[in-house]
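WARN retry 2 of 3 for item q-0093 after timeout on previous attempt; input resubmitted unchanged.
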Amino acid sequence: MVTARDWGIQNSRSLTELLSLAVLQHLPSACCFACIATELHATEPEVRGAAQMLILQQAFKPAWRLCLKCSRTEEALVREKQFD
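OK item q-0093 returned
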């Protein structure tokens, strides 16, 4: 998995791209924001901010899911259209 540190994150657009890739890699499962933040070596507020950009683009939406990593039911980011 490519992390934010590997890419030398300089701005929220780069984190947004990494978040998008991370969400797609976990399909059909989902990971909560805290676990994705840990995976990307970012803070949860940074990940949530990047998620807002993806939600505004209507590519993703927030949803309550069982997290693949921590096994808690938490808010996660999922694809807007699961079956393209």
